[in-house]
Amino acid sequence: MSRGSKEKYTEKQKRKAEHIEESYEEKGLSKDNAEARAWATVNKQSGGGEKSSGSGSQKRPEQKKRARKDSARQAAETRKGNTQEGKLEQKTKDQLLAEARRMDIEGRSKMRKQDLIAAIKRQR
């Protein structure tokens, strides 16, 4: 059972919801449950009904989609530890020394691993 008016949705969104609902009904879901899931899917994919051009709609849908995708990609990289800081943390002290040598960081031979990481970050 979907709630609220569907007036703000485009014809394409309405057709999509109807198609999704039919698919759920074919899989054995009740009409109400299928309808609710269909509209939830449409809302998730398109962000709901048509938006007014007033307050709160500063980005176009394409920009929002790209921003979400970039954010998801960045989050995945962070989980893997592939941030700049994470990459430095994963290197051995010898690797960090070699990088510090290439960057001509003074006092590198006496630095601990964390000091090397900090010095390399400052140089970048």
UniProtKB/TrEMBL annotation:
Lineage, opening ranks: Bacteria, Pseudomonadati, Pseudomonadota, Gammaproteobacteria, Cellvibrionales
Biological process annotations from GO: DNA-templated transcription termination
Pfam families given in the database record: Rho_N
Gene3D superfamilies reported in the protein's UniProt record: 1.10.720.10
Name of protein: Termination factor Rho
InterPro entries: Rho-like_N, Rho_N_sf
Signal peptide, first to last residue: none
Bias-annotated ranges (Basic and acidic residues): 1-35, 69-96
Rho termination factor-like N-terminal domain ranges (all copies): 87-124
Annotated region (Disordered), positions in chain: 1-96
Native species: Kineobactrum salinum
